[in-house]
Specification:
By secondary structure, this protein is α/β, with parallel strands linked by helices. The protein has three domains: 96-264, Substrate Binding Domain Of Dnak, Chain:A, Domain 2 (Up-down Bundle), CATH 1.20.1270.30; 276-425, Rossmann fold (3-Layer(aba) Sandwich); 435-650, Rossmann fold, CATH 3.40.50. The chain contains 26 helices and 17 strands. Strands 1-10-9-8-5-6-7 form a seven-stranded mixed beta sheet. α23 links the parallel β15 and β16. α6 packs across α23 and α7 runs antiparallel to α11. The chain is globular and about 65 Å long.
């Protein structure tokens, strides 16, 4: 029997819980009550926030308050530290150029391109990891995975021009995995999934010079342009941003989604539970957090291992309870029905329940502060990616080749930590919220009888006015979940179908909008449709990478109507976005022809020319643009008006 790997401590162990009792002692009960209500609308989070405020445990909101007031130049995007001739700031009327001569337009556009390239690299690198796992399975270098959807394997192979007749799944996996990995390089000069977009939309990209040539190629091209002495025209720089974002949406992210479906199963409609109350006081609790299903899929197997379950019972637990957090949780929720504990701003709070034995993380959206929070409890933070080592965490070097062995070692470590739990400190608030998830495009088609025609007919008849994709993260600039939930409620009230991914979908789930019963909150026409199909008015479509599913849905609807995507009565929104990934997502929505409303202003206001290009000028290039509206009720009006305009132009 192979020996399970041992964890390594990353740098230092945080043995002592660091509490800011001096600062927290200034908070009286009334102020604590005020702060917890100002910070979140998540009712299950509020008791935990109150506890942390009372005991002096630092959270993301505390650190946000400590950073105020924000630097004006950073907010405007008119600061630059790209080279050591600076750092520079634009301070009119006298300091209107940096040392190199960059004006505000160039400085802002370079900073924005940097954000898009970083976000595209992050999501596309996720896709690379999944494609590599598919390739490793096909070449026999790992047997810890299998092909869960052979039909999709053959379908995607055909899209890549790979002959499927007479070939075993392993052979196809090797060929397809290799072909997907080739998309990242410099030689192919196109991406296979671009052909999923309507011809008219692709012609718009070609005319604008923004058709992506390769995933890594566009990221590298972007990073070259932001080097001092290269890109100097802000319009040219921002167009490269659109091309880079398209390489993410129609490339890296779409590869991540499709390869995950092939390996782990295409999601089907499933029921589960959501919020912090999915933890169990009498079980070993393990949360998986991050974005990579290659890790979480084998953790699911390990928590059911009879030896490990028996070990948990030996220590006095009734069993092992696995819960999700953020997008790794979304991956497991939609494929396995694993309960979801929360989204981005819940990640410190779940530790403060006192009931979590281990948080297993891979990469993206993980607070470096988690080991510090965990030091106040018995929780182990277990990191697994060499890209994302976290000081104070226990590190397992996870690889697909020995995935099951590492997963068992991780779960064993969590189980053995149960004996260290202080049961007197456990606080699991409220009751779990039922949710319906797993609305892949295939699942939506099946619910409609096998095609999107019934959906098109409902839109044409006005029963559904249109659709809005609400995506993105949480941001302490906006009350936790308020932007997502309020916008979704306002849209469904107007008979607009909402599709969601990532933290937005989790916010709606915690608020009860992912239940068929939420149709009661919709307008009469949408309510009737949802009740007849027994579905919610807000559809959970997966993780952030699965925004590519929304692109495919839009492309299929446009293809059925024989129009480019920009003519559809659809729109996008990111009410609480924070990350570079979200900038890339917003950019590829707009570049694909989807009007998109942001709830948080990007750091671009120092360049009126850049603001004008993004909010109006792009209409002349890609027939779509951005708007910024922090008030979700007002954002709903913008989105609804846009959808009605598109309906009028389509003559419906």
């Amino acid at each position: 029997m192979e020996k399970e790997p041992e964890p390594r401590l990353v740098r230092e162990k945080l043995d002592v819980c660091e509490l800011d009792r001096a600062r927290m002692s200034l908070l009286n009960p009334a102020l604590i009550e005020q702060k917890k209500n100002e910070r979140t609308i998540d009712e299950n989070a509020k008791p935990i926030l109150e506890l942390m405020l009372r005991e002096g445990m630092e959270t993301v909101w505390d650190r946000y308050e400590m950073q105020q007031p924000s630097c004006k130049y950073c907010l405007d995007g008119t600061s630059c530290s790209r080279c050591t001739m600076g750092p520079c700031r634009i301070i009119p009327p006298h300091r209107i150029r940096g040392v190199c001569g960059a004006d505000a337009d160039l400085m802002v556009s370079r900073n924005l391109l940097d954000m898009i390239a970083t976000g595209a690299a992050a999501h596309s690198d996720h896709g690379r990891d999944i494609a590599e796992t598919l390739y490793l399975f096909g070449t026999g270098k790992t047997r810890d995975y299998a092909i869960a959807d052979p039909e999709k394997l053959r379908k995607v192979c055909m899209e890549y021009g790979i002959k499927t007749d007479g070939k075993k799944p392993e052979e196809l996996a090797a060929e397809l995995g290799g072909a997907m990995l080739d998309e990242y390089g410099m030689r192919k000069n196109t991406l296979a999934f671009l052909n999923r977009a309507p011809k008219a939309t692709r012609e718009i990209w070609d005319a604008a010079g923004i058709s992506p040539r390769g995933i890594d190629r566009e990221v590298v091209d972007s990073m070259h342009r932001v080097q001092m002495g290269v890109g100097a025209d802000y319009v040219n720089i921002l167009l490269q941003g659109l091309r880079t974002s398209l390489s993410d949406g129609w490339g890296g992210s779409m590869i991540g989604t499709e390869a995950s479906d092939i390996l782990f199963g295409t999601p089907t409609i499933t029921s589960s539970m959501m919020n912090l109350a999915v933890l169990k006081a009498d079980h070993v609790n393990i949360s998986v957090h991050g974005h990579n299903p290659v890790l979480s899929e084998v953790i699911v197997k390990a928590v059911s291992d009879p030896e490990l379950v028996a070990l948990a019972q030996k220590y006095g637990a009734k069993g092992i309870n696995l819960v999700g957090m953020c997008c790794t949780g979304n991956e497991l929720l939609m494929r396995k029905g694993i309960p979801m504990s929360g989204n981005h701003l819940n990640q410190e709070l779940i530790i403060a329940t006192g009931a979590l034995e281990a948080m297993v993380v891979d990469y993206q959206c993980i607070f470096p502060s988690l080991p510090r929070t965990a030091s106040c409890y018995h929780t182990h933070i277990i990191s697994t990616s060499s890209k994302a080592k976290i000081p104070g965490s226990y590190f397992f070097d996870f690889h697909a080749e020995d995935a099951n062995l590492t997963a068992k070692a991780i779960v064993r470590m969590a189980v053995e930590n149960y004996k260290n739990r202080n049961h007197q400190r456990v606080l699991i608030p409220g009751e779990p919220m039922p949710v319906m998830a797993g609305f892949s495009n295939e699942a939506i088609k099946n619910a409609l009888g096998g095609s999107f025609k019934p959906l098109i007919d409902l839109i044409a008849a006005g029963k559904i006015r249109g659709a809005v994709g609400i995506v993105g993260c949480n941001n302490p600039h906006i009350k936790h979940d308020f932007g997502h939930v309020t916008l979704a409620k306002e849209l469904i009230k107007r008979n607009i179908l909402v599709v969601e991914t990532g933290c937005a979908a989790i916010a709606s789930g915690k608020a009860g909008l992912l239940r068929p019963g939420a149709a009661a909150l919709a307008g009469d026409d949408l309510r009737e449709v949802c009740e007849s199909l027994k579905i919610p008015p807000v559809l959970h479509m997966g993780s952030c990478v699965d925004n590519s599913r929304i692109l495919v849905l839009a492309a299929e609807l446009a293809g059925a109507l024989n129009v480019p995507i920009h003519k559809l009565p659809i729109a996008g929104a990111a009410p609480e976005w924070y990350s570079q990934k979200a900038v890339s997502i917003g950019a590829y929505f707009v570049a694909s022809g989807v009007y998109t409303v942001l709830g948080v202003m990007p750091h671009i206001t120092g360049s009126p020319a850049t603001v004008s290009l993004l909010t109006s000028g792009l209409n002349d290039v890609v027939n779509a643009s951005f708007s910024v509206e922090p008030d979700p009720a007002k954002a709903a009006v913008l989105l609804a008006d846009h959808i009605e305009l598109k309906r009028t132009r389509l003559g419906i």
